[in-house]
Amino acid sequence: MTSRFTFGADEHIFVEVSEEMSLEAFFKTLSMTNAIREAGIDGITEICPANASFQIKFDPDVIHPDDLMTRLQQIEETAAQADPVLNTRIIEIPVYYQDPWTHETLMRFRERHQDPEATDIEYAARINGYDSVQDFIAAHSGAPWFVSMVGFVSGLPFLYQMVDRDRQIQVPKYLRPRTDTPRLTVGYGGCFSCVYSVRGAGGYQMFGVTPMPIYDPTQRTSYLSDFMVFFKPGDIVKWKPVDRAEYDRCLSEVEANTYQPRIRDVQFSLDDFNRDIDGTNAKLMEALYAG
Amino acid sequence: MPVNVVSAGFATTVQDLGRPGYYHLGIPMGGAMDRFALRSANLLVGNDEGAACLECVFMGPTLEFSEDAVIAVTGGDLPPKIDGEVKESWSAIRVKAGQVLSFDYLKSGARAYIAISGGIDTPPTLGSRSTYAIGALGGVEGRAVQAGDVLPIGAARRRVDEGRSLHAALRRSPGSPAELRVVPGLYWHRITEAAGRTFFDETWKVASEADRMGYRFQGGSPLEFVDREPPFGAGSDPSNITDACYPYGSIQVPSGTEPIVLHRDAVSGGGYFMLGTVISADMDLIGQLPPNTPTRFVKVDMQTALDARKDRAAMLDRVRAALA
């Protein structure tokens, strides 16, 4: 996996670790961006990791773009040897699939959709070969997900499912992006799930909604008091399907500011995962629900 | 010293030089679309050049002053009026307590900057007062200015003389057609050689969808893509990529039809290919392009981008010297 380095004019270097998504590409992105951060190169102003690529923003008055390019290419060689092991956390996120709010929104934007006769989740289930929406929800929520990028807008996580490629879900984005998406919609585009952190435009298919805020600029939400953004790359997420009653119960806890997401610290090894995907995921679930 | 907002104009926001450092979380740097105009406005009234100003688009607000102040209006040509009397742009104007600042119609450009001595003193978030409405950060309660708002103003740093102004040679506005210099790169290899040539040969027009997040352009030919098998995770449209970061100034072309140049409130990433990036020296110009402005993208290399950057810095030094 040799990376492609290119300039974004005079202030950015863009590095495509791989054209296609994989956990290997994500881990290489992570180890390269960590190594670059540790190198403390003068002139670098931002390091933005993303799924299978990353971007460096820099001040060309401090470091010549060609010199920075050379430094980054040197770092690629050392970063490739880093162990793909991550000390991270696993988080349970409740999802109310097929909720009334995303349903209302998707009906408003039917003419921008591939299949105006079906809902987003019916369409996704069908094109991925599932017999029913229930089977599709079972697959979407059955195995955990990696946060492989945070971005687009304020704290929005992109998530990549931890299953072998044959079982990965793929759906196209809307033909034309919507101008509206409910806050906390669980969406899907390409091979990525996401949670829309704020209300706004969006092109991903809409499957449901979570009651759990993941961005709070006021930092009044108890678990966001340290920082306004909840997710970081490398977090592992397990969706928990909930019904309307449980959604409402979670929401009233969120409103009373007593909601506490279930979070456990875990170690993840890519090599162990590749050797035994289901076994590794089972251990992650044990860690999540222990105690 | 509060300033009362009588009417807000259109999309009037508090802006400074932005909040870099959070793009990896999807929080853009934000700040003035035309930073040169913001810095000049501040220097004219004796502020730190990164103090918070009002950025207004097409239409100015109406503001009532409760104490004496010095103001300056720069950027697009939006003539200021004090109690109805037209005053000079790019000049220090004395305003007395009780007087009202309003504006005539926009003559050129798209965005004007209103600096007030002492600077707008709304609370900063993540190190900046810049309004990022999508993320409810900065500005007045995380939103654009509204009628009825009372804007807090800081203490003036120093006294300046009325009438001092910035010579026309030290102002900068887009030509006609506007020219935006671009370094090709990023996913340039995804389009055919002929499509790449056409992109730079044709004249585009600014579309109505042109805001702080990005500027859309119309009127050129659709791009032709190099054939390929879509990589896993990218999506099936030839313009799709595995969701990646977007540089500020990068030009994405969803479905190959209408280029979008990302600006200060850019989304930090997404799944569309980009063919290159507008050079840093020309980013200020974009914010001054109203819809329908004919625009050419001009292909340049890195050395040209760095030289242009030096020219911009030298021009800013001349402004600082002139207003020291």
Automatic annotation (TrEMBL), chain A:
Q: What Pfam families does the database record attribute to this sequence?
A: CT_C_D (PF02682)
The alphabetized UniProt keywords are:
ATP-binding, Hydrolase, Nucleotide-binding
* Keyword Membrane in annotation: no
UniProt keyword Ribosomal protein present: no
Q: Which Gene3D superfamilies match?
A: 3.30.1360.40, Cyclophilin-like
Q: Which residues form the Carboxyltransferase domain?
A: 3-224
Q: Which positions carry the signal peptide feature in this UniProt record?
A: none
Q: Name one GO molecular function term.
A: hydrolase activity
User: What superkingdom heads the lineage?
Assistant: Bacteria
> Can you say what this protein is called?
Allophanate hydrolase subunit 1
Species whose genome carries this gene: Paracoccus fistulariae
From TrEMBL, chain B:
The segment(s) forming the Carboxyltransferase domain are 24-315
Whether Ribonucleoprotein counts among this entry's keywords is no
Keywords from the UniProt entry: ATP-binding, Hydrolase, Nucleotide-binding
Q: Does the keyword Nucleotide-binding apply?
A: yes
InterPro entries xref list = CT_A_B, Cyclophilin-like_dom_sf, PxpC
**Protein name (Swiss-Prot/TrEMBL):** Biotin-dependent carboxyltransferase
